[in-house]
Task: structure prediction
Amino acid sequence: MFAPPCSCCCHSKGWCCHSKGNIKILVAPSGFKESLEPQAAANAIEAGILRANPTAIVTKAPLVDGGEGFVKVLVSATKGTFQKLTVMGPVRQPVSSHYGFLGGDRRKTAVIEMAAAAGLRLVPPELRDPTSTTTFGVGETIAAALEAGAEEILIGCGDSGTCDAGVGMAQALGVRFYDIHGDDLPLAAGGASLNDLAIIDRTERHHLLRQVPIHVACNWHNVLCGPEGVARVFGPQKGATASDVDHLARAMDKFASACSFELGVDVGQAPGSGASGGLGAGLMLIGAQLHPRYDIIMPLLDIDPLLADCHLVFTAEGSIDFQTPRGKIPAEVAMRAKARGLPVVALAGTIGEDANVNYGVGIDAFASILQRPVSLETAIAEAERLLVESAESAMRMIMIGRSLRLRSEINLIVE
Result:
């Protein structure tokens, strides 16, 4: 008697988790905020997989969502060039930053990640106060790219340490903000200063902004104002108290009112306007176009051909929770993998509230890399080791399933 044909989800791809032969695995993770960049995360997962199955064929495709690693991944993928510069950081101290130019046969396209100039990583824990942090350095980076001859600019939003609606960025590019008395708002003073905003004047903005198109990769679900506005949803993650959140929410409303009047559109509820502490709205003010982030990123990284040549997918991110299906990398990878009938394993630093919703977007299994309760500082410091060991454990479980199926098939044949 012979075993029936296998009906598992990877059988149709030419390999089955119950069969002999080399498995082809695509590793497509995001980074872990303040800890591992996407490439480092991909390397760690590969190392764990190969510990469990040394014959596995692993292809790495580190991904970005606009946050940390956006420049490095896109510039490396296109064989472009990196540029270093010093800008004002989120707490108004100089920081070493960077941007890049894409390679290939295309117009001179600069790539900027806001996190390199105003990311949460650049805000010391004791100074995490989103009422005062600034995006001024982002504007300085845009100016540098313009003056270096950029013919197009791509900006990635994510991993921000700010909530100033991009006003600091716009100030660095010459936009003026006035209170009801006609006085300039303080330079790079953060979101709290926007409660005094009355009028916006763009007449003196950088002249090249009128000539160079700017496209922004952002989370399309993030809006500036309202119950789901950026201050209320993300302010506490950046150090805001309950009082700070209320203060910032009012400030975002003030900015939305002035900006909507200036642009003639409803900025407060515009998709993506709340990205990176409202930087999306500020970028609209200087003439940028906002896009769902994967519309910008995936054409440059193009993982679909890699999905066509694998049997199993590993992805990863710092947290898996109810927000993951709202534009996070594991969900994007899973949806693309499921279109090809591929199983998906997701590894995360933490498993948060209502994480089970991710089964509905194509993640077949997820697990935390934490093996015991530890402090955030310890988790960040040991993230690489923890991710290697978690990937190894997940792969060993997959191999157990393969072994059990083979044993079952042998027993059926014997019978």
Summary: The first strand starts at residue 24 and ends at 27. The chain has 13 helices and 13 strands. Confidence is low (pLDDT under 50) at residues 1-15. The first helix runs from residue 38 to 52.
